[in-house]
Amino acid sequence: MDLDRRQFLQKAGAQAGLVLAGARALEAAVGPTDAVPAGPSFVQSASDVVVIGAGAFGVWTALSLREQGASVTLVDQYGPGNSRATSGAEVRQIRAAGRDELDTRWSLKALETWRSRLQEWGRPELLIETSLLRLSVRWNEAERTAKAWLDRYKVPTEVVDRDELARRYPQMGLEGIEFALIEPAGMLKSRQCCQVVARALERQGGRVVIGRVEPGRRSGGRLLDVVLTPGGNVGADTFVFACGPWFRKLFPDVMGNRLRTPPGGRCFFGTPPGDNRFMHPAFPNYRDNTTGFYGYPALSQDYRGFNVIGGGGGGSGSADPDSVDRMMAPEALKRARDFVALRFPALKDQPLLETQLCVFDTTATGQFIIDRHPELENVWIVGGGTGRGVKHSPSVGDYAAHRIVGQDQEPELTSLFQLGDTTFE
């Protein structure tokens, strides 16, 4: 059954002193924003909800549940914003256009949430607002759909032909490009954003614990506890698994053929000394629909170089997020180099400063999964974020939390996000 909102509020009131006392004790021991290792002192206190996975979906779901009155423990085996997580990248894009109405609506809602909450938390610099060049050779269904939804929500856009692109951005090579759709966009400092949300959860009395979790005992269609290493068994009324590419390891029977975990790579190229043409705000985000590459300008706040994403990364198929080497394959690096030479010729001989490899969780339907475990009524699965997870995470967290407490605000989306029968072959 759903964890009832009234039960949450009753428990929150009864446990307020205990939660605050525990939070103060932790703060005195390790500081107000530090996750604590699992141990006996943690195991002795259960929560209404244990959320497993402190990536973007997990931290926002945990915070949303806490703000609705639940006592919440957030557990991650490596910690919020860690480099193995899909959302542990330095930068993720947030943009308004999507493939359908929901994608656009949730993106706009999430952008406003990111903007307002980062301002509230004193970290507005983690969102860098810019624009996105969607480079194309011709109008296709994806561009028409994106433009239609942006127009519906009165998002300002601009369609620019090749000649105007050449005038505005002479640093670009435009071979095969006929026009660009320009829309508002932003860059989220993803790794730091996950940590900031986790710290907000702690300030509100939630717990953040570092430890490895495996599903524990079952009884009567319910999960009784999870096994935390180190620490022991931890019980809760409800468990939310938001583990991204780790789903296939934790629930192989349920998630094994519903998810793929492909590796994706990104490169950071140096720019010529004193040449600011490839830095924000002189250059925007870009997406080249003719090649599949996309990326971001260099940022003066923490210069890492000009960002290029695409071309594969670490090979094909599904990767193990625990053990895969976070190095891009040579053939993927060559494809990125070839793309840079095509679109940004002034960078073709510049040094490669850094590469990153992350593992995505991609569903067979292309949609998120926000649904109960088919065999465990008190277990929720929140995943399928792929490369869109950070962008949508405030909206996903809010939606998931309302469903979990039995206050579903958008029941028409239930079938869209269900596990369903669609699987990879």
CA-atom Rg in angstroms: 22 Å
Low-confidence stretches: 8-33, 39-45
CATH topology type of one domain: FAD/NAD(P)-binding domain
* Distance, first to last CA: 33 Å
Counting DSSP E segments of at least 2 residues, the number of strands comes to 22
Q: Report the CATH C-level class of one domain.
A: Alpha Beta
Describe the fold and architecture.
The protein is an alpha/beta fold. Among the domains are: 5-85 and 192-257 and 365-413, FAD/NAD(P)-binding domain; 262-359, D-Amino Acid Oxidase, Chain A, domain 2 (2-Layer Sandwich), CATH 3.30.9.10. It is 31% helix and 26% strand. The protein has 11 helices and 22 strands. The chain has helices spanning 5-30, 40-43, 56-67, 101-120, 141-152, 162-168, 190-203, 247-250, 252-255, 330-343, 389-404, and strands spanning 36-37, 47-52, 72-76, 92-95, 127-136, 158-161, 179-188, 207-210, 212-215, 218-219, 222-223, 225-229, 232-241, 259-260, 263-269, 285-288, 294-296, 306-309, 352-359, 362-363, 369-373, 376-383. The strands form 4 sheets. Strands 1, 2, 3, 8, 9, 12, 13, 21 and 22 form a 9-stranded mixed β-sheet that branches. Strands 4, 5, 6, 7, 15, 16, 17, 18 and 19 form a 9-stranded mixed β-sheet that branches. A two-stranded antiparallel ribbon has the order 10-11. A hairpin with a 2-residue loop joins strand 21 (369-373) and strand 22. Helix 3 runs parallel beside helix 7 (190-203). It is globular and about 65 Å long. The two termini are 33 Å apart. Residues 8-33 and 39-45 have low confidence and may be disordered.
